[in-house]
Amino acid sequence: MGAAIGIDLGTTNTVVAHCANGETRVLLDETGANLLPSVVSHLPDGRVAVGRDARKRRVIDAENTFFSIKRLIGRQWGTPEVERARAGFPFKMKEGPKKQAMVVSRAGEFTLPAISAMVIKRAKEIAEAALGQPVDKAVVTVPANFNDLQRSATRRAAKEAGLDVLRILNEPTAAALAYGLGAQGSERLAIYDFGGGTFDLTLLEVSDDVVEVIATAGDSFLGGDDVDMTIEGQIARAIIAQTRLDPRTSTEVMALIRAASEHLKIQLSDNETARVELKAIGYGEGGVPINFPYELSRTQLERLAKPFVDKTLAVCNDALRSSKLDLRDFNSVILVGGSTRMPYVQERVEAWFGRPPRIDWNPDEVVAVGAAILATMLTGKGSERPAPPPPRAPAIPRLRTPMFDTMPVAVPAPPPPPPSEPIATHRPHTNPPLPAGPAAPMAPSIFPVAPEGDGPLLIDVTPLTLGVEVLGGQVDPIIARNTSVPCTRTRRFATSTENQRELLLRVCQGEDPRAANNTSLGELIVTELPPARRGDLWIEVSFQLDADGILNVSAKDETSGREVKAQMRVGGVS
Amino acid sequence: MGTVPPRKISIRPPQDRDRTVLRWVAVIDSLDYLAMLRLPRAIPSDDDVRRAYRTFARAFHPDHYRNSSPEIRAAAAKVFSAGADAYHVLSDPMLRLRYMKSLEAGVARPRLEELERASRDDARAAAQPAASLAKTPAARAAADRADKMIALGELAYAKAALEEACKREPENAALAAKLQAVERRLYAPRGGKPR
After folding, report:
1. If you placed Cys at B20, which of A238, A448, B33, B56 could pair as Cys (CB 3.0 to 4.6 Å)?
2. Is residue B118 part of a domain?
3. Are A329 and B192 in contact (CB < 8 Å)?
4. What is the CATH number of the domain that holds A550?
5. Which residue in chain A has the smallest CA separation from B92?
6. What are phi and psi of A63, to 5 degrees?
7. Contact B21/A at CB under 8 A
8. CB distance from B99 to chain A under 8 Å?
9. Which structural domain range is residue A540 located in?
10. In terms of CA atoms, which chain A residue is nearest residue B62?
11. Which of A337, A363, A379 is the last residue of a domain?
């Protein structure tokens, strides 16, 4: 059996970690580097370069070098996000089957999961070399606000790379696992995750080996790359003003400027001013290359970064509101993601929270570390450990006759019911007890397992509200955001015409009350309905979000209890 | 916070656990949310709900059944999902208010979407002036007094006035929601630390 690893598949960099015997370490490549650039380049000789070798080619072979793929993975062709990002990419893209976005290089056309799979495959090779054993299972992280389509695409990418995906895990939750488990007692943490391409804030509570996510919110188009792009624009404008050359006409020069922008930003985390020399941005009289020096100060950078940091804090306030908690209820704020290295970000977060944020782990590595911890949690032999005895013999609930409808036949016949007493595990209440309801079935008096038999537990939530479109383009929310996953919710729908054979529902994810402003997940089609008068047939549609945050649907005819066929069509194709 | 008592562990065959899960899944659809989380039949506090849910999740979270048979795994997932619904309802003050009413009326498991719709109506009602919610002159007079007290920030007086209004119109759910909202503001915990 192979090892299980944690992979932080980032917009800019990918990190891989492994946890064994309670110790977690980041796995380094042959050169000792911890970050694998999430860049793939197709070389003229047919080989594929991944990582640093590929990143170097962003400048010299921009059309065949793919980066920031995560910004577009799982997004449909024609959406504003794709159009916007496409304008900034030097490589070519086109529409593939099922409205997928595809990238085009000299080696052919590729789906975005296929490109991500190349990065994951390289990460897997690094892990195998570092561990000296095969790797076949992984926990892969995604930003908390990734929707169903983006998660499915990421899972597909990992599968394509030959990995069994144990879980698609939210990045801030992963960070929380790294920070939270092993904490003494109980605490509430806020995780401020500002990465290259996305921003998330996650609020969670940790106690006794249970990590519970309370709320999460984010913006999947807000990251350090945005700051880079602003610097880029600034440099481009300076070049135009001083040399009368327009760098935007050359993808090579733009790639050079982009690399310089990131370099400047990183330098300014440690220095008050930083300087780059852009070489050969054009040629003057007699073919003399024109070099362009550019200098940026920290104050200037702060002015450029301010709108983005303001946006992150707006998201923070939004998450806090939805959690119904007060900022004072939190013990600490933890910074995750490369962009939190900017001193300006740290200052602003400190001002917002009123206390200095915590950075115990390397912000670049912490997500991978948490993923590796979960990978171990999910492959451990937990349940084979002894379970403690139940407090007493199980009391079989007394059921009124109507309740027997729901009894599956496989259940052993219950012995005569002993009168079961409530278990006094809770504090006495000051509220007067309610009158006992008429038919009050009792829960079995024991819980099936003891926690210590199974090790730590993670209770995660869905970051986006899942709903269906109803008349007038409004959304009827079915699974509200911040609901624990896995989760199943049902909805009843009646037919509206005589002998209706099909039921069609538009499913979307997002927080806007209007369906058009949310991400469409596709159409849910229930077919093979039995003939009936209109309004007589009630279909119960069940929406299941699994632990990865991926949607499954099923439907049944309520009167007969018979399953009917239901499936999701994405972009009009099943 | 005291010290955690040492946990006793003895060996039981895993089938025992499976049997208990099956027993739970057999009744889960008919259990009320309080019984499900093993809370006493009284209005639970936020802390109690959270703690009870955590214990529940430890017992039924599907991650703890990853090595079980598909049948047991599905059963645990079903039980867990119902418990998550219970948590969803009981941890939201507006939903909880509606649910406790339904429980008093003898409906242990109202349809979630109806509960949610009712609680959204309640929330909308709570945002309106109380006087506009009252239907009888007597209740309206009390409600009007409550509105004035709310405007002055005298929540304790507002609460008393609303209680009077509710007494005059016991069937008015919107007024009850308004009262609940005022009580929440009045008793809102500040700077509470998790346990």
Report:
1. A448
2. no
3. yes
4. 2.60.34.10
5. A324
6. -75, -20
7. yes
8. no
9. 462-569
10. A486
11. A379
Evaluate whether residue A405 is within a structural domain. Answer: no
Same domain, A17 and A105: yes
Determine the 3-state secondary structure of A182 from DSSP: coil
Taking contacts as CB-CB distances below 8 angstroms, the residues of chain B near A480 are 88
Q: Which residues of A touch B30 (CB under 8 A)?
A: 399, 403, 406, 441
Q: What is the mean pLDDT of each run of 10 residues along chain B (195 residues)?
A: 46 69 87 88 84 88 85 89 91 86 86 86 80 85 86 84 88 84 70 38
**Are B86 and B29 in a shared domain?**
yes
The number of residues in chain B equals 195
Question: Which residue from B minimizes the CA distance to A393?
Answer: B20
Which residue's entry shows tokens 């079903």? B78
Question: Are residues A223 and A195 in contact, defined by beta-carbon separation less than 8 angstroms?
Answer: yes
The reply to whether residue A483 touches residue B84, judged by beta carbons under 8 angstroms, is yes
Per-residue pLDDT tens digits for A40-52: 999 999 899 999 9
Min distance B167 CA to chain A CA atoms (Å): 18
Residues of A in contact with B15 (CB under 8 A): none
Backbone angles phi, psi at A287, to 5 degrees: 70, 20
Q: Do A408 and B59 touch (CB under 8 A)?
A: no
The answer to whether residues A400 and B24 touch, using CB atoms and an 8 Å cutoff, is no
Marked catalytic residue, from A70, A121, A137, A265: A70
- SS3 at position A42: strand
> How remote is the C-alpha of A265 from its chain's centroid?
26
pLDDT at residue A423, rounded to an integer = 36
CA atoms within 13 A on the CB side of B101: 17
Any domain includes A415: no
Provide the CATH number for the domain around residue A294: 3.90.640.10
Is A279 in the same domain as A325? no
> What phi-psi label fits residue A244: left (phi over 0), alpha (psi between -120 and 50 degrees) or beta?
left
Claim to verify: residue A144 and residue A173 sit in the same structural domain: yes
The ipTM estimated for the assembled molecules is 0.75
Does the beta-carbon distance from A447 to B54 stay under 8 Å? no
Domain-located, residue A184: yes
Residues A147 and A214 in one domain: yes
pLDDT band per the 50, 70, 90 thresholds, residue A440: very low
A460 noted as active-site residue: no
Say if B173 is an interface residue toward chain A (CB within 8 Å).
no
Domain stop point among A278, A304, A330: A304
Sort out which chain B residues have CB atoms less than 8 A from A432's CB and list them.
42
| Residue A439, in any domain of the structure | no
Smallest CA–CA separation between B155 and chain A, in Å? 20
Active site annotation includes A171: yes
Query: Does residue B115 belong to any structural domain of this protein?
Result: no
Which CA distances in Å does B161 have to A13, A431, A469, B125, B138? 61, 21, 41, 17, 11
Structural domain tally of chain B?
2
